[in-house]
């Protein structure tokens, strides 16, 4: 979101970099867990002060990355409508592609940390709306959102740590199909229609 990211820049001479350039430089750095702000400024070929107009620390860097990825995943003007399952599948595949292009990002998300309130709320609202369109109550739509996101981010984080997976890790298409067939959540004992 350009306006939120733009609000971070301090007055003065405009930075020679953009939000997209920062995310691209971070994605080519190897692993976000080990990326330093000094390294990122070097990859962008700018001074620390130019980078600090956008992000002053790693938390702000992850917020900026989150904003950018949510902008890429939630397409402007796209409505969920009644086709909620294909829409969620598309969102999950976009998250798969975007998150795994930034090694360390899914692992970071899987750890307890403060999320970017704006981008997390946008994604949550869109996904909860999809589950509401599936015909469940607001409480079950919220529960379904947490199940969907926790499962998805955990699977993606496991892909970043291949030594933990072993040879039996499920393919993403199998994992996603099984996850979506189990959603939206239902009260225990209630049969699926």
UniProtKB/TrEMBL annotation:
- The answer, when asked if DNA-binding is one of the entry's keywords, is yes
Entry superkingdom: Bacteria
Q: Which InterPro entries match?
A: Homeodomain-like_sf, HTH-type_TetR-like_transc_reg, Tet_transcr_reg_TetR-rel_C_sf
GO terms, molecular function: DNA-binding transcription factor activity; transcription cis-regulatory region binding
Give the UniProt keywords, A-Z. DNA-binding, Transcription, Transcription regulation
TM ranges: none
Family matches, as PANTHER family: HTH-TYPE TRANSCRIPTIONAL REGULATOR BETI, HTH-TYPE TRANSCRIPTIONAL REGULATOR RUTR
Name of this chain's protein: TetR family transcriptional regulator
Q: What is the lineage of its organism?
A: Bacteria, Bacillati, Actinomycetota, Actinomycetes, Pseudonocardiales
């Amino acid at each position: 979101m350009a306006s939120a990211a733009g609000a971070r820049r301090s007055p003065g001479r405009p930075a020679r970099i953009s939000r997209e350039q920062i995310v691209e430089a971070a994605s080519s750095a190897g692993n976000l867990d080990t990326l330093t702000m000094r390294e990122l400024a070097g990859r962008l070929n700018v001074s620390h002060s130019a980078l600090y107009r956008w992000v002053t620390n790693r938390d702000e860097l992850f917020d900026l990355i989150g904003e950018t990825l949510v902008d890429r995943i939630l397409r402007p003007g796209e409505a969920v409508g009644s086709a909620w399952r294909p829409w969620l599948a598309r969102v999950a595949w976009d998250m798969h592609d975007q998150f795994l292009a930034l090694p360390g990002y899914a692992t970071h998300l899987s750890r307890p940390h403060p999320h970017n309130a704006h981008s997390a709320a946008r994604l949550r609202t869109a996904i909860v709306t999809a589950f509401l369109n599936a015909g469940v109550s607001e409480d079950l739509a919220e529960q379904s959102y947490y199940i969907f996101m926790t499962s998805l981010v955990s699977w993606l984080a496991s892909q970043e740590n291949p030594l933990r997976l072993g040879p039996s890790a499920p393919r993403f298409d199998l994992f996603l199909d099984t996850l979506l067939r189990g959603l939206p959540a239902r009260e225990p004992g209630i049969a699926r229609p």
